[in-house]
Every structure is written in structure tokens, then in C-alpha cells.
């Protein structure tokens, strides 16, 4: 199992454990709610979201605290109004209450006005009153039949009417439609404790879906590479398995260097031929760049272009197998202060320059399509045992038909110092094969001057950028 696959699996396992633990916690809450259940007089099995005065806080909402007085269930709201609870149906999510001042049947007005919304719609989340009454006192008669006159409260100076309204059932039906009869109070508990559900069930599920989508996209990228490799297998170099790569590099014992896309190791085939294996870091080297490298170098056979002998592609494990260049890259030989190789004579510099130019010219004109390298620099010019230069590293390369004078790219490509101006801004012109010629020109300046194109430690600022100093 690769490190990426192991990471995804461990994350999936973590989400699964979160779900199991959250389910256990909900079961515990369910048991706690059942333990908080109580009865008072004719009202039986009262439970969440209601709580009995003196019960623990987890038994219900503080605003829905009930008391039991003389076998009568009392609901007392924050406006000091007291109501007898006549019935509570947890299955239907309904509650029936009566003002204590009207419960004796005498003619009188309620003690306090009562609003549905601050309590039953906001706090109970689904428990509704079926009807409500508005009392009005008028000096004249009301003809509207919706208002019923209350004779015992009316006299010659005023007329008291009551208007009975009905709460819409849409809100209640939404909740009741989600109930299962066999689940009873347990489902009522789930419906009203939305924050618990959101935190411990919905959040892990959403996170899990996100991981699955990400994993599917990763598989899709791998599938695209595999599809390309399958379609082009007739002309491609040899494909190695990852265990074979481990074997030929002797478990990656001899490291040659570190590049922008991964590490390079020295290896040896069973025939005795020395090779260089570039292990690609998946986060830095995309599937498109891998395809570019294989498809570009795989079909090229030129003395001044590095030869790709094989490749490996197994999930996130990708590698490129090149011919071994014993004398390393050009930058080791042309910068004296950094050099670990031998310095070149002017004749040898001339030979290297011509060989590099031939390799670039072949890329532009020697193949069926024009191949733009986009990263010509000394580090990407390798030298064999006879110091013959070979252009390498085609991760940023792009094909375009020879009949097209210009090429379209979506983003700047290359290394700072070697990037042609038109790659940064189209105001300088169109991108073409001349963009590679610009990079080669900078390499020639560095070969002639024996220094890098940019030196931040220069004694004079005017000499910091070598091409600018040469131009002056």
C-alpha cells in the first residue's frame, strides 16, 4: 500500500471511529433521556424536551421546565404565566395547555397574554399549539362572525369578543412525517437535538464524502496516465515495476542529486549498464508532466538529447529511467566557485555549445511536431563520459504543430533568469520556439562569463544581473 493510499485509509478509519463513538454517545443520551422520564397526574411519560423541576440540565430545555403540584402538571413561562398541561403527545409532537385562571370554568380573561413563537416554535422545534385565542374589548358591536361575543364579560359600555385562530400544520407535518412508530421518543430526541446530530453524525459523513471525492479524483488522474500508457505502448520504452526499480537502485543507496521534481539515484541494469533513476514526488510532478516526459523523450533518439530507457508507474509511485551521465550537469563545470568537475577550454566550451544547439534544433525541427522545452539551463544539460552534451528534463515541454508559428500556454513556465520575456507578458510578443533560444542565449553568456546570470552578492549592484551588465 502506498503512503497516499495509507493516508486515505487511516483518515477513513478515523471517520469510522468518530461515527461509532458518536453513535455510542447518542445511545448514552437516549438512555439519559429515558431515565429523566416522569409522570404527573393524568399526564404520563413526560420526557425530552420537557424536564421536571430539579432534574439535571441534560433532561430538557430550561424554558420548558414543568412542575407537579397536587397531581397537576404546571408549565410556567418566563412571563410568569402559569398553564395546566392537559396532554402531551411525543408521537404527534403536540401539547395542550390551559390558563390556570380559566381552568375552573368561571368566566374570566387569561392572566397573561401568550405568544406562540418565542417558546413553541423556537425552543420545542416541532411541538405546536393547535389553536390560540385573541380577546378584544370594543365599544361597539363586531359584525364579523369570526369574533364570538363573551356575554359574561360584556356590559352596556363595552363588548368583549374572542377570536380563535388555528396554527398552520405545515410545520408540524414536516416533523411528524419523519417519525417511525416503533422508535417513539428516541426519534423525537433525534429531531429536537439537531446540534448533537450535526456535530457527531452529519459532520463526519460530510467529511467522509469529501475524502471519497478526493480519492476518486486521485484515481481518475492515475487512470488518465494508465490510459495514455496503454494507448502508446507500441513505441514506448520499457516499463518497470516498482520492485524492479528498488532492485536496480539497490534500495536507493546511491543518491546523485535532488531536483525540483524529486531525487535522482544511480542504478545498474542486469546487463551491467549504468542508469539514472529519477523518483518523482507526486505532489510536485503531475500526471500531465509525467506524460510529457515519457511521450517526449520516449520517441527521441538523438546524440544530443538524453535517452529515456524506461519508466515506472504504479499508483503514486512514478519513476523515469535514463541513461547514466557520469560527468553530471553543465553547471558543475562552468562556474568555478561551485565547480566540482574539470574546467573547460574554449574549444571544449565551443563543442558543448554546438552540441546543445543541435539538440535544441532537433527538438524544434527534427520531429513530427515542434517540441518546446521551456526550461533550457545548465542544470538540464547533461554530459556523458566523453563530455558530449545532452538536453534533459522535459517535464515542462509542450508540443505544437510545425505549421503554427506561435503556441498558446496558460501559465508561465521555466526557471527565473532563463525565462523569455514573452512567457511573462504577451506585450513582448508571442510564445514560439524562440523562447527556448532565449534560454540558450543566457546559457551561452554563463558559459562565456563563467558566472551565473544573477549574483545577489556582487560588489556592485550594476553587476548583479549578468545579461544587463553585458548589454551595457
Describe the fold and architecture:
- Keywords: ATP-binding, Glycoprotein, Kinase, Membrane, Nucleotide-binding, Serine/threonine-protein kinase, Signal, Transferase, Transmembrane, Transmembrane helix.
- It is a single-pass type I membrane protein.
- GO terms for molecular function: ATP binding; polysaccharide binding; protein serine/threonine kinase activity.
- One of its GO terms (cellular component) is membrane.
- The chain crosses the membrane at residues 6-24, 160-180, 186-212.
- The two termini are 58 Å apart.
- Strands 11-15-16-14-13-12 form a 6-stranded mixed beta sheet, with helices on both faces.
- It contains 12 helices and 20 strands.
- Helix 5 (194-231) runs parallel beside helix 7 and helix 9 packs antiparallel against helix 11 (434-449).
- It has helices at 3-35, 117-121, 170-176, 185-192, 194-231, 242-248, 287-297, 331-334, 346-365, 421-424, 434-449, 466-471, and strands at 38-40, 43-46, 51-52, 65-69, 72-76, 82-89, 94-99, 131-138, 147-149, 159-166, 238-239, 255-259, 262-268, 274-280, 308-314, 317-323, 370-372, 381-383, 389-391, 398-400.
- With 472 residues, the chain is of the alpha+beta class.
- Among the domains are: 232-324, Phosphorylase Kinase, domain 1, CATH 3.30.200.20; 329-472, Transferase(Phosphotransferase), domain 1 (Orthogonal Bundle), CATH 1.10.510.
- Residues 116-129 and 168-187 have low confidence and may be disordered.
